Amino acid sequence: MPEDVQEDSKDIINASNTLLEIIGNILDINKIEGGKLEIISTYYDPKEEVESLCKIMRTKVAEKPLEFIVNIDDNMPKVLYGDKLRIKQVINNFLSNAIKYTNKGKITFNVGWNSESSSLWFSVEDTGTGIKEEDMDKLFAKFERLHVEKYSSVQGTGLGLSITKDLIELMNGVIDVKSTYGKGTTFSASIPQVIGNSEELEKIKNYWQEILGRLQ
Length: 216
Known about the structure:
Radius of gyration: 19 Å
Distance between the termini: 35 Å
Shape: globular
Oligomer: single chain
Number of strands: 8
Largest sheet: 5 strands, mixed
C-alpha cells in the first residue's frame, strides 16, 4: 500500500485502541465504584501467562529504541489459584504506562514468588521521565494525567493507575511506587495467591478443549 495509506491505517488502529481503552476503563470504574466488580479465581500457570503477555508487550516496546528485560523467578510455583485476568490487567497497565513515558533506555519486568507471605509479586522499572515529588499524591487520582505538557501526544484518560490500584486492593494486595524525576520510575505490587496443583489446572484445560471441540 502507499505510504500515506499505511500511516492513515496506523492512525485508525491507534485511535480504535485508545477508544477501547477509554470505554473499558470507564466500565471498570463504574463497576468498582458500584461494588459490582467481582474477583473470579481460577487455577493458572503463572509463568505461561506472564510469557504470553510479554510476547504482546514486546511489539509495543519495539516501536521505540528500548530494551525490554524480563526476569521470572525460577522458584515460581507451577500452578496458582487467583484471578489471572485481573492480575494480567494490572501488569499490562504497569508495562503500558512505562512504555508511554519512556523514550530511551530500558524497561525491566521482574516477577517472583514470596513463600513467606504466599504472594505473587512483580515490578516494572523504567528509565523514563520519572515523577516529581509534588506530583506523587496525584498519581492514583482519577482523571489525573501527569506530564501533559511534555507528552501531549500520549492518549489516555488518567484512569489506568487509579483502576490498577483499586484492582490490587480488591485482591488484598499492596502497590508501591518509587521514582526519581528525570531518571525513572518503579511500580511494584504484591498479591496473595494460593498454590494449586497440576491436576486442577489440567481439568480446566480439558474442559475448555471439550467446549472448543463442540464448537468446531
